# Entry
Amino acid sequence: MTSNRPSLPTPGSTGSDLSSSTSSNNSDNNQIPNLHSLQNSSSQLSIKSNSWRASVNFGSKGVSVADSEGFSISRREINEDDARLVYVNDPLKTNETFEFCGNSIRTGKYSVFTFLPRNLFEQFHRVAYMYFLIIAILNQLPQLAVFGRGASILPLASVLFVTAVKDAYEDWRRHKADKIENNRLSSVLVNDQFQHKRSKDIQVGEIVKVSADETIPCDIVVLCTSDPTGVAYVQTINLDGESNLKTRYAKQETLSRVPGKDVISGLIKCEKPNRNIYGFQANMEVDGKRVSLGPSNIILRGCVIKNTDWAVGVAVYAGRETKAMLNNSGAPSKRSRLETHMNREIILLSFFLVTLCIIVSACAGFWLRRHQDELDIMPFYRRKDYSKEQVENYNYYGLGMEIFFSFLMSVIVFQIMIPISLYISMELVRVGQAYFMIRDDKMFDAASNTRFQCRALNINEDLGQIKYVFSDKTGTLTENKMEFQFASISGVDYSGEKIEFYGEQGGYNIQVDGQVWRPKMKVQVDSKLLKLSKTRNDTKSSKEIYDFFLALAACNTIVPIVVNTSNPNEKLIDYQGESPDEQALVYAAAAYGFMLIERTSGHIVIDIQGERQRFNVLGMHEFDSDRKRMSVILGYPDSTVKVFVKGADTTMFKVIDESLNLSVVKSTENHLHSYSSIGLRTLVVGMRALSIAEFDTWQTSYEIASTALMGRAGLLRKVAVNIENNLSLLGASAIEDRLQKGVPEAIESLRKAGIKVWVLTGDKQETAISIGYSSKLLTSKMMQIIINNNSKMSCKKSLEDALVTSRKLINVTRASEDDASSVALIIDGTSLVYILDSELEEQLFELASKCAVVLCCRVAPLQKAGIVALIKNRTDDMTLAIGDGANDVSMIQMADVGVGISGQEGRQAVMASDFAMGQFRFLVPLMLVHGHWNYQRMAYMILYNFYRNALFVFILFWYVLYTGFTLTTSITEWSSVLYSVIYTAIPTIVVGILDKDLSRKSLMTYPQLYGSGQRKESYNAKLFWVTMVDTLWQSVVVFFIPLLAFWESDIDSSSLGDLWTLAVVFIVNIHLAMDVIRWTWISHASIWGSIIATCICVIIIDAIPALPGYWAIFNLASSGLFWICLLGILIASMIPRFIVKMFMQHCKPCDRQIAREAEKFQNAMEITRNGEIEMNLPHR
Amino acid sequence: MDASTRTRSSSKKPKYSRFTQQELPAWKPILTPKWVITSFVTIAILFTPAGLLCLWASEHVVEIVDRYDDECLPGTFSANPESYIQSKNTNKTCVRTLKVPRKMIAPIFIYYQLDNFYQNHRRYVKSRSDKQLRDPDDADETDDCKPIDHTIGDAPIVPCGLVAWSLFNDTYKFFKGNKVIDIDKKGIAWESDKKYKFGSDVYPKNFQKGALIGGGELDESKPLSEQEDLIVWMKNSALPTFRKLYGKINTDLEANETITVVIQNNYNTYVFGGEKKVALSTANWIGGKNDFFGITFLTVGGVCFLVAINFIVLYVLKPRPLGDPTHLSWNRNQGAQ
# Structure
């Protein structure tokens, strides 16, 4: 396990175990020993490098929860039925029995022909659209035909059309990308010659050659590479986003045969395509031998070959069966809190709808009953049809059916009570909000050149209601850019003055063939230590320093890569590796003159103070979470063999022979303690010389272990433990993981905003606490409650004690009017094991909710999720989890909002997150500014849409009462259809995207304003009911003023309908205008534009002679009564609302209101403050 | 590792624009007490005189309304009005005298008013064919007209449908003493209807020939565009109590004059218990007689005036400095404790 992060044991542990078990499952693992004989083989040693490499690469990935399913697939034995047979270099035979899919990919969902049916099919999966459809279908029944054909289909059609256009555009872009991808040329072996072939024509079984910096066209099993040992370096950034290089290997049996020159054939049996990108299981029959293949032998589509001239492989999975394609799944879907509440209110609205329908149908029933005898010849009913020979009832199905039809018809007429268009508006608004979040230059991280990413598009508004933030430490609060700080060598602490190198010329460099090679990253060095490391004499301290740095340079899995610079005489060495700690150590060693310049499978070359030395890597024991250390066995040029071990202090001191030098051990321990107390990450390095006999014993047992069929991981661990003992202590290193910029300020802001910040880390308690202090999470005023227990009973006791203390403390602070909550809880993973999922959870919750800060150290990934769940399940508060590593994935998925830091530790956190950004401090603008805005906007928009649609429905309803309950509408059907499509749609969307209740500056200066979202101030049941009452009032005004004005007059139905249409559109838009806080030209344009558009539409509708209301609006507009009516409606409908609003604003101003006023009048106030203070004084 | 070396492409930093940073110049109105009071006072000042003006205008409209459906029913038929109205042999003539309360200046509009007649009933509204009315070639477009679509002999009825079938057919004659007052029946329908909705080459056919007579008959020699009574009738009224224009009188009527109306009481409203009225009305900018607006406007103006006073009192008694940070909830709580 390369990820040598002793302080963070969790992320790799699963991976490492899985890797070993995978390889041990290869029952037919008949590897030949002596894969790579050592060139300078004075001692004729041989090692089996392949096996450790396999585990290096495979095990190093943390495995996210989502992948576990895939794992179980790849862990299974390949049985004959399930296997895919690939005949190497024989695509015809390969595809003979089973037609494997070709390499052309289609991420596009639709083709020209399938677009319509498939897209429609997918769209109708949404409940909202089904509602539309059912209503439209109902309307087509002749008995229920309320609207004309066109008008009834239009709303559905327009929604379908908009969505289809959106889908089509997205699909078109995918098709374009597919086309480029499919037509990329790659080199394929045809008739023993490599020829260019378009990517989409590659077939399974064909042999593909890939050159450096080329993208792999399909999943290939490596046969041979330009490297004689069969190594190929690949970058998997397209696949998992990790930019470091990984190694892949060709099998010994195939690497010597260069396709094109030698005939190559064989049969690969591999598992069925699956989506696990970290697993692959297969075997290959070459020359009658069976060789097992693992994940280190396959290069996946989308990877890029680096530092390898070429690699040749056989295609095993192509096209959509490649692992990259199988992993192409969308972002996780969550539903926002606001939307959940909204759905509750929508159920209420549907009750309203049903009530209205019941009233109408019941009244219709009564009416028909009362006029029973008159119906036959009543001029406006005429039940009897005399036109036939036989007099019969016309269009009358009996009282019961008529009532039933009335009910259905009223559902059709009142359908927009359920604001279906709201769902579409919300989607559009969220896209708009996401656009502004992505474009916010305050959330752009220049260091990593990453923008803010909105991966989930449906929880924008949740960002405004967060109560708890759960943060990872490493890489989230800190930069995860490890920097070597101090060293303690043989009990001597080197933490003195630092020399910093600036400019091009500084730092250590070496001359190679007239060129200057220098490490890519500069490290501050300790001047004294630098001097000591340069002097080479045989003093004991000099030797120890030599060994220490040699250990740092050698005991790792870092691959040095020489990078060209603009200056031809200068090259940089870039250390690529998966662990930032190791990188920091190697860079540090290089700065002190121990520069690692070459690593191959069998040896490493280290330039020691200008002198190139070659060491054979005889063996390596990977890092694993049990041992928490790794070791490497080095063969010196002079044939001596030494084992170097580095690891976490806890496990290292167990294997160090203290008898050798007790005082050194003691002082090193002291140094370690002081390092970790200032937040540094520490590692201890040890060494032991091996005798020939010892080495031989080790080698034999290592061979046995690594060829074992069962329990290989355990055996290897045992071998490692056997050799990693009786070490002499070389020293300890301290690496700083610096806090990210702005973290203390960000935490301060979040705390002020009433958000509780909890830190969940895998780090040591001391490190966690010290980071807590430096990030201002903890202050010296706080009382710390620390819980470290090893049993359930003791956990219970300390929880109870802590509860008592915290209660006392809170009472005391309340009495003394001090900072109300100043208790910090620090708890470790071991205690959590006993607490989580037991009855103690409740106590922990109670305690934690009393604490201002909770720090959890040494927690495993699943425990992180458990803690999030602890809060999520017990409170109604919203949670946000932020993290950067694979170990945070479960927490990110568990929390209501998951934020990923796109940082150093790969991208699994980002892949699982809802939002991703470059820096922790962006959380402040994200939540306090954008979250606040989004919440206010969305909350307002939902209420407004309820109001808007209900108002219209109420007006229709009132009219129905005056039509004999027959569901006639005087508003033309086109206007009622266009009402939510054109008349009133745009302004609410514009306001939902653009309106800002407060400026960014105020929100940042007063983080407390965030509380309005936490308290659900903008959307709650009370507001809903108030809105509904207001709606009812407005509908009464809009309906009854014209009704009374035109009672006993000769007004025709269409004219009155036009009046109602205009009145309702005007007041709906003016209502919105009264609530707009920030009038940009866009808001002006949309609101006034909508009113004008409505007028134009009404005029157009009334200019069509075929419609009943022909010319109505022109006749109407020429009468004075119409204008008086409109004015009266506008004023009378708005007055109650205006009075209440102004009254509340003055007497019970909310914080937002005051801040808004301050924003506007602050400047004026500041200018006149001096003069006004005296004037104000007498008032108070 | 470093993104900048890996991707040589330029920085992904979002381009700054006031739009993307949501910093577009904006007007941020805040309703200060001054504004609140001003707006209420303005409404009060505007609406009170407007209300008075409406009342005054309405007051100047002279209107005479006379209900005659019950008065014109001979006493012998009061138990069975339908047999009276359906019979062809009963005398339908009815004489009413009206007194002009104030001087009525021409034009004086004559309306008939029906009560409880649901011209907006769904069955009724739909039972018509606008196509047929417009174009003689579309005479067969009678699908929507049921049950008045075809004669028993399957010939299309023009105009078809319940609306046309139920054409109002009471007639009025006005006399001043013995002198006939001329009624101008031209120009009572909308010009737009005459031009575009009712064809000048469409003639009534098979109209009112069914077993059940719904109302008036039409002159088959006159095109529909000239049948203004039909056009007026077919403009569906919005509410169950409505008036329709019957004609205009182009001479002034003096105050206290007595005029006689001779009514042919043909139209059957007895079947659904509707009322029939005849109305004479002058008109000005407010339309007919309508006190409703005056009252509404006065009420709104009065309410706004009261509210304005209340707000003034509120602002004086309980002033709150705008944007005072000490009123923020977190500052307030601190102060309170």
In short: The CA atoms of residues 268 and 284 of chain A lie 4 Å apart.
